Amino acid sequence: MNMPVKLLNRSMLLASAPFLGILIWLLATQLMITIPTEQPKATSMADAGTTDRIASAGKGLDDAARLAATTQASIKKQIRLYEQTNASIQLIESTVSTQAQRPLLVYDRRITGKLGYTNRTIQSSKLRAQLFTITAQNFSGYALKVKLSDKDAMRMVLGHDKFGGSETTLAAVKRYNAVAGVNAGGFADGRGKRYPLSTTVLDGQYVNGFDPTHADLFFVGLSEDNKLIGGSFSSKEQLDRLKPKFGASFVPILLRNGQPVPIPLKWQLSPKRAPRTAIASYKDDQLLFLVIDGYNESGSSGATLEELQILLTRFGAVNAYNLDGGGSSSLIFNGKIVNRPSDGQLRPLPTHFLFFE
Known about the structure:
Elements: H1 2-32, H2 45-115, E1 118-123, E2 127-135, E3 140-148, E4 154-158, H3 169-176, E5 180-183, E6 187-190, E7 193-196, E8 201-202, E9 205-206, E10 218-223, E11 228-231, H4 236-240, E12 244-250, E13 253-256, E14 259-260, H5 265-269, E15 276-281, E16 287-292, H6 305-314, E17 319-323, E18 331-333, E19 336-337, E20 351-355
Antiparallel strand pairs: 1-2, 2-3, 3-16, 4-20, 5-18, 5-20, 6-7, 8-9, 10-11, 10-12, 13-14, 13-17, 15-16, 15-17, 18-19
């Protein structure tokens, strides 16, 4: 919308050029004319000519003054017209911008309505994080819907910022002064340390190299433009094309383009029910995290992966991935533990998703 204003500015300059030229000529003329202050004692032909020229110049000055007044009024009128037009253009631009946002606002109200009543909200220039309670027939839990408005609004961190280190999500939230946190990828223990499972990216760098997809693993994270990316990748170049900013790995993929992905039999039964954590995205790139409570990891409490798929589809998610669950499921909001960890306390983990206001 800036182009019409620029064209109008150029038009104003062109329209005003003749009037400005007249004003400059008038100023120059006034500098060149000298009117005598004393009456001559005698009259001659030369004196008469001088008098005529003075009278003519005076008349010219009077005419020029009238022309200048007319020109000044015309310029003021053009300026008022310019200001009115500029105000109209700004109003049109604001209206167009508002109208362009309407579909997004309608869509946001629709997906928010499916989640139910908002328990708590964190709103800042960087993000909007909304917390919801989930109550289903066989389980209960929480949903965290996040709209990112800044490239630094979400990060993934390692436990104690070390490969092989681990800490609870609450400890990571406090250490980084974040407003919320969710557990991230899976892990493997070895030599007294806890290592991220498979491909892990932090600040655009591969933490321990690229690991091609195997055993139903996937990679999920955010791209440089804050969009959720994920899936199976057979080569580093394939993942690099998506420009990952950070991400972790686990199993299995839940939704792709709004459709449930068949869950491998192994992950349907091992365990059947459990505390769960999932990450998903909407059409407008908002993020949705589900954290489901359960009493243990024996398969007797919590949600099945198929139930997660049903829930995510009902909520309108497009793409979704199962994150580490069981005793790893962790949801921190405004510095407090929201979910009920099945271990009775939060589990130290190697990777965490954190959010900043």
